[in-house]
Design goal:
The chain is an alpha/beta fold. Helices cover 36% and strands 13% of the residues. The chain has a single domain, classed as 3-Layer(aba) Sandwich (Rossmann fold), CATH 3.40.50. It is built from seven helices and six strands. Helix 1 links the parallel strand 1 and strand 2. Helix 1 crosses helix 7. The longest helix is centred in the C-terminal third of the chain and has 16 residues. The structure holds flavin mononucleotide.
Length: 224
């Protein structure tokens, strides 16, 4: 069964790339829904124009791109495997993930915009991404919402509480610095790794806390 990955129009398309690489490296299958707004953030953040008609080429380019501007070593040939990666149009409300009878392990929204958070909290189903998220909740499957906005207004905070009450994992895209990050990609991978942790998918994206202070590479000196 696939994981549904929803990419909405918050800043943070490198987080989505890192989660997708992590899922595929772990042998998972992915059903991908890229919102219309997220195509603007992807273009802005990477220069990649994501097209429904050329999604395989565009996704390969996206996954090959590291957050530090260097190529990632991930083998993008897996994107050509129709069994492992499926793309659904953002407006395709007849797509598989819009029905509860379509099998999935759950859904990861990375990054999640406040508009998306609101839409899912209120059950708007204004596009396939929001519909798939509502379906995931009603079927009692795992929903991880990696919200990215700062500061947060009261409205969004209330929507996030609604999602938490509904059983979703609210996971702010908020990197930590204790794992010895030295590159932007390390910070991206920390957030992506926490998303995969919430999904129960194995990975080696960041160094876990082991109960000893001073393990980072910060000014206090560390072992990294
Ligand atoms: C360059 C850019 C960056 C944005 N960053 C954020 C953001 O970090 N968080 C957010 O909630 N919205 C952000 N937005 C606004 C969303 O894209 C907008 O609310 C959109 O309607 C979200 O639609 P979606 O949830 O259907 O993808 C950004 C928009 C642009 C163009």
């Amino acid at each position: 069964m696939p994981w549904i990955v929803g990419v909405s129009g918050a800043s943070g398309t490198p987080y989505a790339a890192a989660v997708l690489r992590g899922l595929l490296a772990a042998g998972e299958s992915v059903d991908l829904v890229v919102s219309r707004a997220s195509r603007l953030t992807l273009l802005d953040e990477t220069g990649i124009g994501y097209r429904d008609s050329h999604w395989r080429d565009d996704l390969r380019e996206w996954l090959a791109r590291g957050a530090d501007g260097k190529p990632d070593t991930f083998d993008v040939s897996v994107v050509g495997d129709g069994e492992r990666v499926r793309h659904w149009g953002a407006g395709d409300l007849a797509a598989g993930p819009s029905s509860g009878s379509y099998p999935s392990k759950g859904m990861l929204i990375v990054p999640a915009s406040t508009a998306c958070v609101a839409g899912v909290a209120l059950g708007l189903s204004k596009d396939l991404l929001q519909r798939a998220a509502s379906v995931t909740l009603k079927e009692g499957r795992k929903l991880v919402v990696a919200v990215r906005e700062t500061p947060l207004n009261g409205q969004t905070l209330r929507h996030l509480v609604t999602l938490d009450d509904a059983g979703a994992v609210v996971l702010p895209a908020s990197p930590a610095f204790y794992a010895g990050a030295t590159h932007i990609q390390d910070l991206v991978d920390f957030v992506a790794g926490r998303v995969l942790d919430a999904a129960g998918v194995g990975h080696g994206l960041y160094r876990r806390w082991e109960g000893e202070l001073g393990g980072g590479s910060g000014p206090r000196g560390g072992t990294a």
